[in-house]
Each structure stands twice: as C-alpha cells, then as structure tokens.
Amino acid sequence: MHLGGEGKNINDDIKALVQKGLAPQVQQALDLVRVTGNQAVHPGEMSLEDSPEHVTIMFEMINLIVEELIARPKQIAERFGKLPAGALAAIAKRDEGKPA
Prior knowledge:
mainly alpha, DUF4145, DUF4145 domain-containing protein
C-alpha cells in the first residue's frame, strides 16, 4: 500500500500529501524521517550508530505515520462500512454536492 506519491522524490511526495490536506504534525513526522534518513545514508554527515536515540525517534515517527495515514483510516472505513444501510444512505444524501 502506498499513499499516492510517485516514489521518485520523497520531498515531492510529501509536498503532494500536504497539498491534499496532510495534517501538519504528520508532515513534520515525515520530514523528520526524510531528513534523518538522508543524513544517515550520506557518509560524514550523521551515523545512527553514534546516536541510538535517533533510531528510537525514527521508529516512533514511522509508527506514528503508519497509524495516522494507513491503520486509523482503514479502521474507521471498516467500522463506518458496518453502519446500517439506512444510516449510510442518509449520510450519502446529506453529503450530496459536497466537494470531495
């Protein structure tokens, strides 16, 4: 599963998510992972072995991103889909004409 980016440039993919309404806190988590990851793979800039707390932070941020962008929306959609048909129809009628 992916979030709709092209996957060629992480910075551009984050920008696209922001333009689609990504929460600022999730954007910050994505940028933290992006910047820290970039620094970890470029010699002479940063080494995760030198800074174990960065590993913990990275895992925390990745877990937050997965929870907010993948797990929680899936959980809500599954539960929403189990509402009675009449309630779903009433919600759909209420939302007719709303921009997506």
